[in-house]
Protein 1
Amino acid sequence: MTRTAVAALDHHDISRERGFLPETDPLSSFDPASHDPSVGAALEAFDQLSAELPARLDEGSVRQAVETLPELSADAIASLTDREAIRLCTLSGFFASASVHQVDAASVDRLPESVAVPLVETSRRFGRKPILSYDQLCLHNWRRREPDAALTEPTNLEALVQFTDHDDERWFVVIHVAIEARAGQALWAGANAQEAVRTADPDALVDELETLADSIDAQTEIMRRMTERNDPEVFAREYRPYYEGFDDVVYEGVDGFDGETRTYRGGSGAQSSILPSLDAALGVDHAATELIEKLTDMRSYMPESHREVIDAFDRGPAIGAYVDETGRDDLRAAYNDCTDSLATFRRVHFGQVIQYIRAVTGDTTGTGGTDYMEFLQVMQEETAAQTR
């Protein structure tokens, strides 16, 4: 079914308050008593290992712990609720990356059945790639310190799963969670802006564009806070290595994989659906280059529902072209405020990437496999060039 952006946001329960975060807060743990004893025991073992993960990595025993996890059948996994399946997907993704990329140990090229099967089966359910991606790292990896705490304030939030005990890692996650929550207003403003173009209502369009620019500015201010509690050395050396992708890894025991090796990109902010949605809403054009092909490939690592929202924005009317047609100065100014805000967001992010990765490691390739220096610079320049 072809939906407008408004209809797609509504259909997939993407709200102004949460954006692409789940409609209900993620599960913090399983309820073993609600399942058959064998399934409940397995889920309890997953919960236990998630709590022990930093210690297991420190002592070098994580691979043994993953190997000895109780196995869950495809039927048992299919019986889980969506929230349970998302938690299992998240834990499996963390355990898989911890096992393959254990710091201070040689990488391995196999995932044992105990973690490969739940990772693949849950990923199939949600139309995503079976590897630790942005959705597991951030969208489904948080809890509030207080039940009614605002999601847009990172000090209100905790990470559910971490590779380390460093508060830096928690801060990295919750900054992204807060940005995602704040982006909800921008997503709805962008969708309503497209509706204003459809109905030829320039006054409504000005209002929506002003809301959109304000939301992007608020996201940028949250992102600027990354440096408050996240040390670049800790990020680059201690936990970023676990965000790397898999090269020729065998997923043991998975139906349909036939023992063949698999290669996937690692977790990356380029797998967030915010900027692709806003680019599409505003009609920000990016030249067809190899970098854009990689960016498009990143969409396959997003949840299927989020890809559908981006596609709906892509199909929508071109706001920039409508602004040009009207010739109204107030409309042009409101549109330019949006693209200026978006360019500023990208500029601040680019500076942080240099600070947190290149300045520490000298690397120019991101965990998603792209040359981030060239990629981010081009995206920033092309956004700034949209000024009417």
Protein 2
Amino acid sequence: MPRIAGVDIPLNKRIEIGLTYIYGIGRKFSKDILKEAEIDVNTHSKDLTDQEVATIRDIIENKYLV
């Protein structure tokens, strides 16, 4: 289970929805983050590679206040 910003992202959800479990990130910011990371919004959390999770984590830590 990917852990981003101290929150476990559910494996059975699309990553677009999973990111909204993080306080302060809604659907719009979720889409913006995934667009910047060049990850398809329909990808499930369980299908993310470690590199993709690290990219998402870096974007959130450096560009967003959560």
Protein 3
Amino acid sequence: MNKIAERIQHQISFLEKHADHLVIDTDTHLTDPSCLHPDFQQKLNNNPYYYQGRPINEAELLLEMKQAAVDMALIWQNPACTYYTNDPQANFEQLLQANQYIADCAHRYPEKFIPAGWTDPKNCGLENALRIIETCVLEYGMPIIKLNPAQNEFRMDDPMVFTIVDKIIALKAIPAFHYGADTPFTPAVALENLAKRYPNHPIIAVHMGGGGAAYIEADEQYTESRKLGLKYPNIKFALSAKRDTHMESDLIAYQTAGAPFSNNLFCASDAPYGRISWNFGGFRQMFKSLLDQKNHPQLHCCPTENLFNDAAVAQYMGGNFVQLVLEPLKNIQGLITREKSQLV
């Protein structure tokens, strides 16, 4: 068994053993400090405070996870720190290097980091984007591959996206998208088109309609997203970069709907764009208030007694994501093992 298959097996065993109590941040971005472009490095050196896209490395993420009592994190690259030019081949190499760092972090800390890949057909070219997917899944053992249509300026339901998703699914991984109200490239109708096109496959929509949009501008998409998720059970949402009041409404609506919908929400921070300590401190307090149903301003008149319980909270805090990610991890381990055996 090669080192990637060994890491995957280690993670599968760890996730299965601790599934009922793991707290997992399902949206974090890491950057290799040794590979920062000089312009980005200078900006970092000159500014000790937060700015949009300010990078963090694995050590910094681990420190904040410990401080926030978060057991594991889904990690992917930070697109604000991946330096692009007008050369698709150079962009391909930069993005592949960023993905390699994510894979290396997961290899060093298999009980802390679940690695996810990132591809970009707009800036790398479609063929290079497909090559990145193959490398991320088969060489890095990544169970999830993300695209950011908002930042890279292509429609979430563009035909080239279907080609990308077809490839991800063919390799037994899960497609994920930045999905927010911050640009016209990720509207609710585009997510619905994806959900209808791939009804038997999960699709992760990160931010559940939030992202970089202002609260008032995002309000309509927040509501549309909640309705979409309760219509299509294959849509999974990472709750990050979104107004807390809407996240609470999402949790109430999905818990009321029950399975399979109550299995489809995951807690997240969007670190370093959001603080893990702030977000998970907030999630814990929010769930504490939801558990105290008789004193909750929305739930005290709910006809369902004890709508939330400790087991349900544990699912949203990590258990739901464990259930989702185990299957692609097992499938990809099988693909890697078979591929290696055929080469012997």
